[in-house]
Prior knowledge:
9-stranded mixed β-sheet, 32% strand, 21% helix, two-stranded antiparallel ribbon, alpha/beta
Amino acid sequence: TDALQRRLERIPSIADATVRASITGRLEATVIEREAAFVWATNFGRFLGAADGTVFASIPNADPMPDALVGLPLITDNRFAARVVSVGDRIPDALLTTALRLEALDPALLGSSATSFSVSVDDDYGFRLTSAEPAWEIALGVYGLDPTETREEMDARIERQVTAVRTLFASRPEAEIGWVDVRNPGKVYFRAKG
Length: 194
């Protein structure tokens, strides 16, 4: 029974398994399936992840997103490393925590009139926020690579970046700004549209 239980628990879509032998010699297995907490999109597919970061299922990019998953946080991973993400992997804690924190930001906190934005990560700028209306992109930088950076320090850096963007949007018309680089919140760079 222990061997079967271990085999079941190695299946990425199973969160927990219990196997019992009855007095008649019959094995009974109870499994608890993982629940999707986010969608991690790459060029090679969209991956469903559990709250602990475990990737447990995939959906081809060509397939429509099932209705039950439409409201989940969606993070687009354009990093070179994303080419090898597969079912059974685990998104690193710091990367996932930052992605979900950014995805949960209200655009109003940025001083933006946007109703939503998308979150992506790439090798050039790290995390980016992109709004379709009004159209702009914000580069936030890399998170999760410095093993000495605590969660509190990451949160404080995000807060400084949010404040810097809010200050920029308060001083210049948001509709005129196309690109904002706030990787260093003390020195914000922006590019006007056109």
